[in-house]
Amino acid sequence: MAVHIIEQSVIPKHTGSSLCEDGLFVNENFIAVIDGVTSKGVLTWPEDLGDGTGNMTSGRYAKEVLLDALSTMPSDIDGAGAMDYLNEALARACRTRRSILKEKPEERLQAVIILYSLCRREVWAFGDCQCLINGTHYHHNKAIDSLLSQVRSLYIQTELLSGRTEASLSGHDTGREYILPLLRRQLLFANEDSPYGYDVLNGFPIHPGHVIIHPVPPCSRLVLASDGYPVLKETLAESEAALRELIEKDPLCFRENKGTKGLVKGNDSFDDRTYIRFDTL
Q1: CA 216 to chain centre
Q2: Is 230:215 a contact under the CB 8 Å cutoff?
Q3: Residue 51 scores a pLDDT above 60
């Protein structure tokens, strides 16, 4: 393999790792971080466990499907072709439920991805994962997430002014409840050409040409990560320390680290998080 992996980690927000919707893939062709989109529906996956239901959230199953697809993806594929290839894998995985998913986008298998192609010496981003290339940070945030994070922050602050406490809101996030209908409505903008549109792999038509491509010079140092790290640093320890500091200061994620969800009591963080650092040779 023409890379040297320095460190890697997948840490779930839940105490049970079986619920993790993040994934990490490494083989001789690709290094990838996958972030399954948090489920906002009720369907479980897959369907073939005997009683017609499964035991995975849509985000976790999307991650598993993409991990399998990466293992068979051609090594010389280009960025746009890779997004088509991976999206088609999700389309096959949900074909028996396609009519339901057309009517209920909140039930779709959805994930974002960032990966390094060893053959092409490029990083490809589709969605809001992030990377460092020789110390330069490339983030791919969604405008609609920033907007809804501001709305949730506003609502939480009105709750505090009305007499609620941060401790009570940590057990019952009324800000998340307030924006949840909009989070479901947001799915209508998936892969749409709109100021609120955003790119996501979901088994339905996408714009593969929207893949963001970062050329990687020879002998580079790279970090690929999911958005579970609000501050991405050059080492895993530094990234974890920055996360811990933010959680300590702002566990509800409505001040320093505005988000669409905060820390749920009993969880390790507000989101799953994946990190890999490596050198290209």
Answers
A1: 22
A2: no
A3: no
Minimum mean pLDDT range among 52-56, 61-65, 105-109: 52-56
Does the pTM of the predicted model rise above 0.85? yes
Instruction: Output the furthest CA–CA distance in the chain (Å, rounded).
Output: 59
Cα–Cα distance for residue pair 111/61, rounded to 1 Å: 10
Contact 113, 127 (CB under 8 A): yes
Rg (CA), the chain: 19
Question: For 71-91, how does the pLDDT look when each residue is reduced to its tens digit (9 = 90+)?
Answer: 999 999 999 999 999 999 999
DSSP character string of 162-230:
TT--HHHHHHS-HHHHHHHHHHHHHGGGBT-SSTT-B--B-SS---GGG-EEEE--SS-EEEEE-TT-S
The secondary structure of residue 176, as a DSSP letter, is H
DSSP symbol at 16:
S
Residue found under tokens 């994946």: 274
